[in-house]
Request: fold
Amino acid sequence: MKDRHAPSQEIRPHVPTELVSFDGASLIWIDAILLVPVIFGVMFLPTILRAVALSVMVALVVTYFVLYSWARLHPAGKGAHVLDLLHLGPPRTTRA
Reply:
């Protein structure tokens, strides 16, 4: 893009990339590829199976939040290590 006042100079806008992490961009695509077919598949199940699938999904989400909060309180525990291996854990703070 050229500067209108000085056409010989090129404008390079500063985009602060340190404010936004692009590490999670692949997670959006994984969610789109895996979860959208699951949601549409659950929609067409009979009522009983749909209730079972919904309760399993809720149980998984609740389990994740319990493990995540436990890992924040006890970062040296095995739960924090497992979540760290799965890249789902809370950010680790390092003391210098």
